[in-house]
């Protein structure tokens, strides 16, 4: 079942009966199950054949996550960033760690396009807020990246401002495109084509009506590391597919959203738990890997113009609600990576480098062999 009948799309995990974890997903099983969260992509694919640095072939893009549909600078969200491994070129980390708020859309792209994307997010926010730099302070764009240079002419820095604005303009709630889209266009993961994946979990009845949603930019790991439900699927697949070891150690970005009322300190605790989901699919957090988790809550927004004391309520640390959020973050991260793998199609990139889409039928056969499906 390498395509969903009648759609021309490759299936997600649950489409083939692969259930990850114990908690129930939201209606869309996506980060956009958290009310108000929006996602947009801009995908850039041009040329084929030999690499001509600066010209192509191009396999790259931009993905943006908006915490809510309003003005994020004026109504900031409480947030945290956990650096699993700092071999990355992300921006905006220090201020989020210091102040505990996110005040712009979160943007994902390739390593050498961070500067361009930062400038575009800055321009977008300045257009929304003419008082910035005049009667109030400046801003802190959060931009994160992975290296797509195996398939893409990364030196060409083909992501331009118009692509960032295209992604921002395309941002919407509802179904999230996955696989070879946006920032995930040229990414590779665990020996196969990687990219964008998403998943969500609803907290159990009796605890809270809250949802936890995760979006990943999956670009890490080698084939032999791939685990699914504890099964060494990568080692089994080595008998059937040829893995190229020419890709550099990759990276991963995880974005976690929730409408549970969590403080920035609690959000950092949640972000750290996402490492469990990554480890479950085979991440070893390699030396050359830049691994980051951004977490935010859509509750208890922070007004830019607020002054004096504020009175807000958060979940207690010893509450079963927070424990459920931890589990939800682990499960949704794990499934988001697998959805990225399942949805991504085979891609031929620069110098005819190939990254195959994971052979879903063979994966299911292996999982049934190990009684995991």
Short description:
With 373 residues, the protein is of the alpha+beta class. The protein has helices at 93-99, 114-128, 161-170, 233-237, 264-281, 320-343, 360-369; strands at 38-46, 58-66, 75-86, 101-102, 106-110, 142-146, 188-189, 192-193, 195-202, 211-219, 251-258, 290-303, 347-348, 354-355. The model has no long low-confidence stretch (mean pLDDT 94).
User: From the alpha-carbon coordinates, what is the Rg to the nearest angstrom?
Assistant: 20 Å
Give the neighbour order of strands across the main sheet.
4-3-12-11-10-9
Q: Quick check: average pLDDT?
A: 94
Number of structurally distinct domains: 1
The fraction of residues in strands falls at 15-25%
Overall spatial form: globular
Summing up helix and strand content along with how strands pair, one would put the structural category as: alpha+beta
Query: Which fold name fills CATH's third level, the topology?
Result: L-amino peptidase D-ALA esterase/amidase
Topology:
Blueprint: E1 38-46, E2 58-66, E3 75-86, H1 93-99, E4 101-102, E5 106-110, H2 114-128, E6 142-146, H3 161-170, E7 188-189, E8 192-193, E9 195-202, E10 211-219, H4 233-237, E11 251-258, H5 264-281, E12 290-303, H6 320-343, E13 347-348, E14 354-355, H7 360-369
Parallel strand pairs: 5-6, 11-12
Antiparallel strand pairs: 1-2, 2-5, 3-4, 3-12, 7-8, 9-10, 10-11, 13-14
